[in-house]
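Recall that a protein's primary structure is simply its ordered list of amino acids. Everything else, from secondary elements to tertiary packing, is in principle encoded there. The following example makes that idea concrete.
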Amino acid sequence: MVDKKHNCHEHFKTRRATIKRPYHFVESGLPNVYLVGIDYRACETCQSQSAEIPALEDLMTKIARAVVQKEGPLTGAEIRFLRKRLRKKASDFARTIGVSPEQVSRWENDGNPPAESADKLIRVYYSLLSEDPALQEKVNAHINEWLSTLPGEDHTASFRAELHENKWDAEPIAATAIA
């Protein structure tokens, strides 16, 4: 039986986090972050671990960038992580994303994952507000790519709407097409 009132400082051993034995960085707020290349302390009695993480803010920024750029849908923990990195209350975050605070709660607690469009919006929202230059550059590149697909140089295009059997069709038209 393990003594529950032991002093971890008397039973700790310093270890180096390696690829084979990484440090499980639960303090990140995500359940699946592992660090390599740092020294950490592990209690040989209760197995608790602790570490002083150098350049912590840089590490958290890089983790957030990896979350935003990962393939596949965001998990609830990842949505919560990004929201907290922005220092946003769930209600403020919800208002910006265009959903209810209850919906954000369901997302963050894995009760109902966000639709693909909401997932993308969360990533873009984080990228724009995070002040991470690499993410902002990536978003700007996507916007510029999208803008480059728009036809012509004339930004004063007109629009024509035409009624067909009680339904409207609308399309942009060149300014020279109006006569």
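The two ends are 92 Å apart (CA to CA). The chain is about 40% helix and 15% strand.
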